[in-house]
Amino acid sequence: MSPMPSNEIISGIFGSISLTAWITVLVPQLHANYQSGSAEGLSMAFLFIWLLGDMANFVGALFTRLAPTAIGLAGYFCIADLILICQCFYYKTANSRPQSVSSTGVDVISSEETPLLSTTQQSGLAQRSKMNPWVSNTLSLLAVGVVGCIAWLAAFEMGFLDSTETDTQDPEQGSDKMLETVGIILGYGSAVCYLCARIPQIIKNYRERSCEGLAILFFLLSLTGNVTYFISLLAYSQEKNYLLNALPWFLGSLGTVGEDMLVFAQFRKYSGNKETSAQA
Hints:
Layout: H1 6-24, H2 27-36, H3 44-63, H4 68-96, H5 102-113, H6 115-131, H7 133-157, H8 174-208, H9 216-236, H10 240-245, H11 247-254, H12 257-269, H13 274-279
Helix pairs in contact: 1-7, 1-9, 3-4, 3-8, 8-11, 8-12, 9-11, 9-12
Subcellular location: Membrane
Pfam families: PQ-loop
Catalytic activity: L-histidine(out) + L-arginine(in) = L-histidine(in) + L-arginine(out)
């Protein structure tokens, strides 16, 4: 068995880290919504445009015959997006219902009897949440990197990463060529969607002067996934044809980094808000 080229090793490791980051990317936001019982911090336009981009990415990956992992991950994105959107609709519907009159009396009694206890507990939780977020987020990102490296190493040791002959397509097959062209167009479409998706969220944060309800780890994992995916693609090959075919995926991954950095700046600027810092 011939040794694996160094560029494939680098591409594989960073690709595995990216895969780990993308598999877990929505978990922090789903958890934040569950804890707060609300999804008001998220822009629905952001989610729908992101879903549209993931759907275009999935179909484009099928048509261009990308690696099975890329196709599977794109399909997973669509399912995960739908889960998050359904959760948001659930909380918006539940929170729009008027509260029952019978529950108000119980609330008043409990609030009169236990104000000091609840205030003390809340202040203690708030103190802990102020001290822990960035440490826990850093540890989470380190864990993603470690798990990604271990997963690649395990796959390598089990022989799953042996280089195989790539299937060259006959240029005479017009239907395959047409599907590939449509796939590349869809790839560009998904890149445009990814670039536009964060804009409604950034505008929402700016208008409300708050990032309340957002999990910053959600955007940190997105940034990690995009950067490592870009490195993985670039390290794999520097041939002209490869770079041209992969261009929409380059744009879709690296193009959103600047927008993620802008969201981080908003977290920093609006961190004086109690709820924002708690979610961060």
